[in-house]
Amino acid sequence: MPLLQLVGSESCKLTMYNPSVSGGNASSLAGSRLFLYEVQGLRQNAETDKMNNPIRQSGSVFITVPYPRMNQEMQRITRMGGKIVSIRPIETVGATSNATPTVTEVPPSQPETTAKPMTQATPKAKTADVPVNLYKPNAPYVGKVISNEPLVGEGGLGIVQHITFDLSEGNLHYVEGQSIGIIPAGTDANGKPHKLRLYSIASTRHGDQMNDQTVSLCVRQLEYKHPETNETVYGVCSTYLCHIEPGADVKITGPVGKEMLLPDDPDATIIMLATGTGIAPFRAYLWRMFKDEEKKANPDYQFKGLAWLIFGVPYTPNILYKEELEQIQTEYPDNFRMTYAISREQQNLEGGRMYIQHRVAEYAPELWQLMQKPNTHTYMCGLKGMEDGIDEALSAEASKHGVDWVEFRKQMKKEHRWHVETY
To answer: Catalytic site residues?
Structure first.
């Protein structure tokens, strides 16, 4: 499908909003939006020519489509031989997912104009009820460590732990995509309390135990060589957490963050680009989307869209949550796609190490097409260095379509469809 286009004024004037497609108050802003499809009819096949449908051999057809039925309508139009040349929003009018698309046909003599290619905004995740800063640094929540489990397999690089904390003694709650702060025990070289460090939450709002009373983190022990002394330096907070014992008390702040929230739309396409412990928020997303216990706990959110994870790690034993991810892929092959970039084991097309940007470049045509859909959200989480390579790969693809990637990315950001959290 080509880039979605805004429709010019003359042809658009012939189609107005039809109130028959509305049906009471929508359950969400997303569900209440209407979009206008402009379809140019291609010759039908023998079977569809017998059907009583409005797509003709010439001229344009304008179809008013409720947001929850956009993907379904796209597929129907394609099956009937039609070509969607533009999609534009109308307004929020109270349409429901059960509303029927309405059609207006424009004679072929009607003049048509098009404007600059662009996609249209989809509603961002609801933020009004998102908890923020329930516990602050001067009055943190003190929770106990329930478990501290290693995530790196034998032969892997470094130390990464999955750590779960008890929240039952307070009011610390959160949603997927948020972070919490950890204040390490002890004091710094000046005798002052350590400053907090933020970590992305790796569990759903219900917690790993599905009792709404835990929160989990995915933490890598920071380790590097001092540039002047060449001695090994370990991160204060990450070392504290990676070696903490069950039963220990931990000072927790937050939650914070609204940048990485999931949309409410169960038919959305979710692209996830992760390196290392950047998998943390995506684990929370995937649990919410696919775990049986989560489906039972969230009857109003039953994911039916596409989730695609591109995950960069140094070695196979560094694929964090590998068994969980591959189980989901086995159970939901039509809804979850997973692509690894294993830098020390795989080669890119030039014969060098396979990093995440090389995978993005490899699949850039597919990713680009998915990004044209108004309900596609792209998330990036991990090392800050991943951004430039991914931008370069997607910029090359955008240029093939005559689009400036930087401007397109800004537009996605404005539409709340481009989410980045790197460190």
So the answer is: 199-200, 381, 421, 423
